[in-house]
C-alpha cells in the first residue's frame, strides 16, 4: 500500500501567540523537523532586531511601501501590531503552495481572523505561556524592548489570549521539547486526515 498526500495543495497552519510565548523558536524548530513545511516570511515596518536578517526573518520595508502593497491588494492579511505593520504576501503564499509545501503563518489573532474569512481548511494553533508571570519574565529576559514596550506587550498579550478558544489546538509552552512534540503531532495528524490522503 502506498499513501500519497496531496502534494499540490499546501495546507495552511496558522500559529498565534503573545510575544514571549516561545512561538518563534517553535516555528523555527518545526520547519527543521518536518519535511515539506515552510514558514511564510512576512513583510513588516518594524525595525530589525539584533541578529534578524532581511528576507529571512521578515522583509523589512517602510510604511509607505507597506501601504502601497495594501492598496494593490497584495496581502492575504495584514495588521498593525505593537504600532508596526505586519502582513502576509498573497504571492509568497501562492509560490509556497504551488511548490507543494505546507505553510506556517506566524501571525497575530487579527491576521488569523482575516485568513479564516479567505481560506477554507486552515488549521489554527494557539501557543500559550504557562502563566502571565512567566510571560513577563521571558519578555524581560529578552531585553530588546524598553520597559514601556514590555508593558504594552503584556497588555496586548492579555487581549490576544482571550481569543485562544477560537483556535483548533492549544499548546501550553512550559517546556520547549514537549511543545515541539505537540506541534509536530498536530501537523502529522492533520496530514493523515482521510480527506488529505490519496491512495494508489
Ligand atoms: P515580532 O515583532 O515580535 O516579531 O512580532 C509581533 C507580532 O506580530 C507576533 O504576534 C507575530 O505573530 C505577529 N506577526 C508577524 N508577522 C505577521 C503577519 O504577517 N501578519 C500579522 N497579522 N501578524 C504578524
Specify Rg, calculated over alpha carbons.
17 Å
Reported for the largest beta sheet, the result is: 5 strands, parallel
What is the H level of CATH, i.e. the homologous superfamily of the domain at 12-40 and 101-196? Answer: P-loop containing nucleotide triphosphate hydrolases
Strand content: 15-25%
Plain-language structure description:
The protein has a domain at about 10-40 and about 100-195: P-loop containing nucleotide triphosphate hydrolases (Rossmann fold, 3-Layer(aba) Sandwich), CATH 3.40.50.300. It contains 7 helices and 11 strands. The protein has helices at about 25-35, 65-70, 90-100, 110-120, 130-140, 145-160, 175-190; strands at about 5, 10-15, 35-40, 45, 60, 75-80, 85-90, 100-105, 125-130, 170, 195-200. It has a 5-stranded parallel beta sheet with strand order 3-8-2-9-10, sandwiched between helices. Strands 5-4-7-6 form a 4-stranded mixed beta sheet. A two-stranded antiparallel sheet has the order 1-11. α1 (about 25-35) packs across α7 (about 175-190) and α5 (about 130-140) packs antiparallel against α6 (about 145-160). The longest helix is centred in the last third of the chain and has 16 residues, at about 175-190. It is globular and about 60 Å long. It starts with a strand and ends with a strand. Guanosine-5'-monophosphate binds near residues 79 and 81. The site of guanosine-5'-monophosphate has 15 residues, from β6, β7 and α4.
